Please model this.
Amino acid sequence: MTFGCVCNLIVLQRFIFVILNLFQNLIKIILKNFKEKSRVQKKEDNFKLPKEIILAKHAGFCYGVKRAVETAKKLKAENPDKNVFVLGELIHNTQVIHELESLGIKTLTEIPEKGEGICVIRSHGESPQVIEKIKQAGFEPVDLTCPDVKKVQQKAIELAKEGYYVVIVGKSEHPEVIAIKANAELYTDKVVVASSVEKLKPLEAELKSHKKIGVVVQTTQRITTLTPVVEYLTAIAKELHVANTICASTSMRQTEAKELAQNSDLMIVVGSKKSANTTHLAEILKDITKTIHIENDEELENYIDLIKNAEKISITAGASTPQEVIEKVINKIRKGE
Ligand code: SF4
Model:
């Protein structure tokens, strides 16, 4: 091979190397562009960012729940060597229950025959019989019943003592209502729980014949549940005393959420589906605008279309929803993930 041929071969090799390099870079650029495009497309496919996101002022922990959670933690911190139990879930939130467990605060599903340490009564309250049973088992009860729930118990007792037929407007299976009823029943057997007028109709003759009827209402009920019951009783009672015991926190939360709903394309209610106040909130808002009830940010994925099409989204949350859970929901919508 001549010297000239060798030179030509080297030049050719270099030329091929440069071409291959160029080709490789071109492929890389095309791939990068493709990935970027599909990332943007994916984002657009998820949530087109709404123009406005508003968080209600009265969203999340109410003072009764906050007090119960903080006091339970304080009890454990001040009594590290003592057992600290809560009878029933302190609040309807798995994340908080896990956090309490990690601090050594355990949930009791029922009262054991024998035990020792502190047993917390949660914000819903308990019947006097249950509190007695806690003591009999050997626990030291610490009563964290919300002061607003205590007021309803006291009012029911007062009405019972004064000879009223006590009507409790609420859900008969709810722990708060069970405790209110048990307190009133210490003084009278004339106590009924009703969530609607239909539940009272079978008792109409008895209610009509009684000299006076007194009404209290579960703290987290809707006013629209109380009103028809009061109207019905007004027509049949000889004397009627109504105590609107829906708590201030519930009223403010519901009023604010209703106002927001009137000017929003979509309301998002965050909180446990086991929580009465959260469920009632979602029910109220559904009558005003499109409303979704989610327990956490992961559930947003089920409502991508609704979120995508909303210009203005307002967010509220139940009394047992921690701030972190609400923030995660807001961040996920803001980021459009
Ligand atoms: S919702 Fe109202 S009654 Fe219930 S714990 Fe909160 S403040 Fe108390």
